Amino acid sequence: MFNRLYVHVPFCVAKCQYCAFVSTEPQENELEEYPELLMRELQLHPSGDRPVASVYFGGGTPSLLQPSQLARLLGGIAERTGISADAEITLEANPGTVDGLSLKAFRAAGFNRISLGVQSFDDRFLECLGRIHTAEQSRQAFRDARDAGFSNVSIDLIHSLPGQNLHQWRSELQHAIKLRPEHISIYGLTVEEGTPFACIYPADSPELVDEDLSADMFELADELLTEAGFEHYEIANYARPGYRSQHNSGYWKRDGYLGLGVAAHSFLREGHGIRFSNPDTLKEYRQGVTSGHPARFGEQRLTEGDAMAEYMFLGLRLAEGVTLSAFEREFGRSLESVYGSATADLIGLGLLIHNDGALSLTLRGMLLSNQVFARFIQ
Ligand code: SF4
Q1: Which H, E and C letters describe the chain, residue by residue?
Q2: What does the pLDDT average to over 131-152?
Q3: Mean pLDDT confidence for 6-22
Q4: Ligand 1 pocket list (CB less than 6 A)
Q5: 4-251 — its CATH code?
Q6: Mutate to test the pocket of ligand 1, among 9, 13, 16 (most ligand atoms within 8 A of CB)
Q7: 304-374, what's its fold?
Q8: Which of 55, 70, 119, 151 is exposed most, by the fewest CB atoms within 10 A?
Q9: Separation of 158 CA from ligand 1 center, angstroms?
């Protein structure tokens, strides 16, 4: 049914200017109350049929919770679903919320991977984004994570920031490489409606990076990071050999996962799959959990067609792409018979390649991935 577990912590010290994630500044007692609600929710779900292979605390800012609260939650998860001995257990951390002591305590609590929201090594961009930390705090958090015993550290970076040029982006990548993390996630900034950024930078703002420059930034990341020994294993993700994110790889391979907490999404492997999400306000979430009947929003039982489309547009995110024989094993039909015409078109456009029994995106296909994926959605 599921073999991965995600926990959403919807609190941040302050809302970043570009942020469209479900997160708010915590009100009185909410940080104390929330882990208890998560524990209650955990008890309301079936325990699963095997220990989970990965646990991921994301947000928001999960590093706002006390190490003792996180340790108790991991203990509760281990008791309820089991956590396999070699599980990847990740904590997302905002560099402005951690220090040497807290990172040691997170490590002692059982986390073996830290994902640091660095975003930029330039304080001017950090200020523009509304981040609560400086570049030096990110570097210090990275060193502290190493000192605390984290041998698997990921950092997030954002490109296409307002006014950013290719030279500045090159410098960001060089700073990241110099730190020697095991994993780097790279996102292009999108200005989401309803965020302060959407008012500051309307669609016609000259400060916004255009598509061509954004594509150059994507390609430069690919060039510099692969030169530095990283595998570009997913559209937005790079890892040193052996350090791909196990948890996120599970999403792209359609492993089942249970999401706990406000706005958390779940995908259960029953039939062709069931997707649903938790309420996206703390009030509704609290109501559901305390009444013993957590609401499931947008519950969707996937048809075979939905599952095949997902298999394609999730699997193609990965560098190894979709193996023709694996598709046939999964659905009892050849990929050619279902998507032959779409894949032939996409190969003709130079967006897909067929190699060694697998279909995968070209670099250009990664850049235009939304156009590619649209071809698999009926
Ligand atoms: S730290 Fe992340 S989740 Fe929190 S406000 Fe900033 S971007 Fe949003």
Answers
A1: CCCEEEEEECECCCCCCCCCCCCECCCCCHHHHHHHHHHHHHHHCCCCCCCEEEEEEEECCHHHCCHHHHHHHHHHHHHHCCEEEEEEEEEEECHHHCCHHHHHHHHHHCCCEEEEEEECCCHHHHHHHCCCCCHHHHHHHHHHHHHCCCCCEEEEEEECCCCCCHHHHHHHHHHHHHHCCCEEEEEECCCCCCCHHHHHCCCCCCCCCCHHHHHHHHHHHHHHHHHCCCEEEECCEEECCCCCCHHHHHHHCCCCEEEECCCCEEEECCCCCEEEECCCCHHHHHHHHHHCCCCCEEEEECCHHHHHHHHHHHHCCECCCEEHHHHHHHHCCCHHHHHHHHHHHHHHCCCEEEECCEEEECHHHHHCHHHHHHCCCC
A2: 98
A3: 96
A4: 12, 15-16, 19, 21, 23, 59-61, 94, 117
A5: 3.20.20.70
A6: 16
A7: Arc Repressor Mutant, subunit A (1.10.10)
A8: 151
A9: 13
